[in-house]
Amino acid sequence: MAVKGSRMIIGPGRPYDLVIICLIVAAAVFLAFSGIEGPLRWGVAFAAVFFCPGYSIVSALFPGRKAVLSQTTIVRREEHLLDIAFLERLVLAVGLSASIMALAGTILTRGILDFTPTVVGLIAAAITFTGSMIAILRRSRLPRGDQFSLVTRPAKKQPYSAAEMAVAVIIIAAVMVLSVVAVNGLNAKPPPYEFNEFSVTGADGDMDHLPSVLATNQAGLILITVVSHYENAQRYQLTMSLEKVPGTSSTFNPGQTVSVSPGAPRSYLFDLEGGEKWEQVISFVVPASGDRTLYLVLDDGREVLDLWLPLTIT
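RESULT FIELD:
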């Protein structure tokens, strides 16, 4: 019996709940293909993955207001009935979505598909659309009075006390403050990650042309590249040494041949603006024979990067 003033939101001929979840999933797939980023995409994607598939399955399993838990094998007799309220549907939807999406993602991405946002969106769409179609079909086979429905009833007007009004104002203010904080946090740009690129190759830029066997005092050529990803200018010290932990060093001119001896590291200071690159072909000689390792150490005062080059000096 309908209550005077009540209004049906979901019910016979009004599967608006299923239409809404299908639209949410379709929007998530569209945003995944479009590459749009931001809070809108994150919110739609969260609902499409962790709510919509489960809700469609719950709706397909429970198309009516009550679910028959047991019945006789000869004459249908409803012995135990369980009310499936709207709030319970929502809770079951979240749990089912997480379980089903995890299982489907695990199966389909095991050598079949790549685990990408687009694939996840398509899996959610397939499950949600299929479950919604089954739910609509099963609802239509039930009598109109037994189909799942959501009805709003007019609220009874009751006077609120001053304490209740104060609590309501506090809750509303807290929600508004949290919303502002959340929006600012989502829109805030993370601080840039500052680092350096440090590499050594042959003089022509080819790694295969790095010197490996040299005669005593025979010049070897290497190309050293440093790229700054800092916002501000930095001072760098480049050290060439035959020891992994160099001691006190003497300076060298990168435009001249550098002699690197055991226990006598050489260093060079230079400045780089943020985003600039420094490249220099350096000629070096090792006056001591044997198996050696040329260590290249770059220090900007914040981080220390090191490279090494094994050499055989004959």
